[in-house]
Specification:
Blueprint lengths: L6 E3 L5 E3 L3 E2 L7 H12 L4 E3 L7 H15 L7 E6 L6 H15 L4 E6 L7 H13 L3 E7 L3 H10 L6 E5 L7 H10 L2 E5 L11 H10 L3 H11 L3 E2 L6 H7 L9 H8 L17
Parallel strand pairs: 3-4, 4-5, 5-6, 6-7, 7-8, 8-9, 9-10
Antiparallel strand pairs: 1-2
Length: about 280
């Protein structure tokens, strides 16, 4: 991984950028649109939104503006969205996909995910995602916030194995067992909230390593993600932070630094536990 546009090849042959922009919390309209356009101009190619975020229209606007400004083609970008919990039936997931696609102003998605593993519902939604995949409406399909047992349950009946599992992942929550399981299944792990919503930015060990490397703590954490083989999508709407977060391809963490950072794990979450959520 030497460049912002470097990719990992998913198990179905689709190339997914290692690094992208997360858009949770970006307000629909100018804020989301400007963040996406700015990121495209500064070399980002991957963008992650969701029906729940309520900003797919703004994200779509930013995509169009970014492509116009750079002369890039739609095929140069990798766009992800997610189906929300209330739409996890077969027909309702298909309808939710069409709604997301219309808001984004696109005719296909690169990746579509089940947002949360709602028991008794996610298998019907997965059949819908398989249908969309077979029809070529989406290039890759996957899940978000799935533990090992959720994945095992899904795999019992799935025709198509998920390509991605997007989960909370950072130095205080390394999810080692899940990561190993995903690797054994050829499922790519992707990190949401890689900076733990800022809670890690004053962690002494990370401050020490960042100071030694003349990098920010955020850059050190994001580099740790990549060197662990985890796709990462930090979120920001500020231009300087969007640029700064992506400046992680000109240095490497040593094996010792990697191990010390991983040893910070406390199995501590900022989001809900996928075994205990109520929405």
């Amino acid at each position: 991984m030497e460049h912002l546009q470097d990719t990992i090849t998913l198990h179905n042959g689709v190339k997914m950028p290692w690094f992208g922009l997360g858009l949770s919390g970006a307000e629909d309209g100018p804020e989301a649109a400007n963040a996406v356009k700015t990121a495209i101009v500064h070399g980002y190619r991957s963008f992650d939104t969701a029906a729940l975020y309520g900003n797919e229209t703004g994200v779509g606007q930013g995509i169009r503006e970014g492509l116009n400004e750079t002369g890039l083609a739609r095929e140069d970008l990798f766009i992800t969205s997610k189906v929300w919990n209330s739409d996890l039936g077969y027909e309702s997931a298909l309808a939710a996909f069409e709604k997301s696609l219309k808001k984004l102003g696109l005719d296909y998605l690169d990746l579509y995910l089940i947002h949360w593993p709602v028991e008794g519902k996610f298998k019907d939604a997965w059949r819908a995602l398989e249908t969309l995949y077979k029809e070529g409406r989406v290039k890759a399909i996957g899940v978000s916030n799935f533990h090992i047992h959720h994945l095992e349950e899904l795999l019992k009946d799935a025709e198509i194995k998920p390509m991605v599992d997007q989960v909370e992942y950072h130095p205080f929550l390394t999810q080692k067992d899940l990561h190993e399981f995903c690797k054994s299944q050829g499922i790519q792990l992707e990190a949401w909230s890689p900076l733990m919503q800022g809670e890690l930015l004053e962690e002494p060990l990370l401050v020490e390593i960042a100071s030694k490397l003349e990098k920010t703590v955020a850059q050190v954490i994001l580099r740790w993600d990549l060197q662990n083989g985890v796709v990462t999508i930090p979120k920001s709407t500020k231009e300087f932070r969007i640029i700064q977060n992506s400046q992680i391809f000109d240095f490497e963490l040593t094996d010792d630094d990697m191990e010390r950072i991983s040893a910070l794990n406390e199995n501590r979450r900022v989001g809900p536990d996928p075994d205990n959520f109520d929405f």
